[in-house]
Amino acid sequence: MSATPPRSFAGLATGSGSGVGRAWLDFWFTPSDPRPLAAVRILAGLLGLALAGSYAGDLEAWFGPDGILSLEAVSTAPSSAVGSLFARVGSGAGLWAAFGGLLAALVAVTVGLAGRIACVVAAILWASLLNRGPMLAGPADDCLAVLLWCLAVGPASAHWSVDRWIRDRRGLPAPTASPWAGVSLGLLRVHATAIAVAALLAQLKGDAWWDGTAAWWLAARPDSRLFDLTGIYRGSEYLMNLVSHGIVAFEAIFAAGLWFAAARRGVARAGLVAWPAIGILAGEPFWGLAMAIFCLSAEKGVGSHFCEAPWPAMPAKAVPPAAAGK
To answer: Where along the chain do its domains lie?
Structure first.
């Protein structure tokens, strides 16, 4: 896909319409600034390298020929591991070669080299790693997979990238507002909402979130907590209730606020702080960081005035002089 928007997109973005249909076309096809997408790319690449690093120490212990989840061990049970690219390598050297390819792709995503190709390769290899041992994947791993596929849609390397540096060295025109950036950022916002709603619904099924004791149970898990807050909660039941109900309230406000122009940026900027804090309280700091990265999708639709050169709208259809005089 070219970074230059197709004329069919231009027609959709500038055509006539009203109501729900018009809002739908505007949401997906209005040219948007690629810079927020570039920020998502950099942060997602760094997150991917951190998550991949957590696998590196025990890679052979889990997936090696004599590992806990060796191919022989998973071949006798229903598993998605057999469909993984990592399942095509039977030796330790082959396993590390595939893992090295994943790291190289994530580095390319981070620095903005090879654009969409790097994002697609990283997404495929990351999904293959997760499918090799799905029981090891956490919520942050799943969020990273979504981020990489959404980045593959738009011009994520249009700014702050090696690709942009090469483009400037060749004297090529600066990137402009692009409908592909709008589609990519729109997908990120849709997925951010879906994840927040899923977390909210899962919490509302438990009594602890209704009676306000959920914060205590999160802090009382020694295997996953990062900080022991049980002493603080023991001294203030009101604080414990405030934290529990505050998490639920924020998730509801976040899921709804992303879709109202007046609240979108405020909610997203609050999410840059709130999601990492929720991740720390829940013992899932990388998941909190992943959700904070999704918040950058709120910049979708800011228009082309942040770009060096706006993408011109389609010219209006000429009206014959005879028809104009009627």
So the answer is: 31-160+178-306
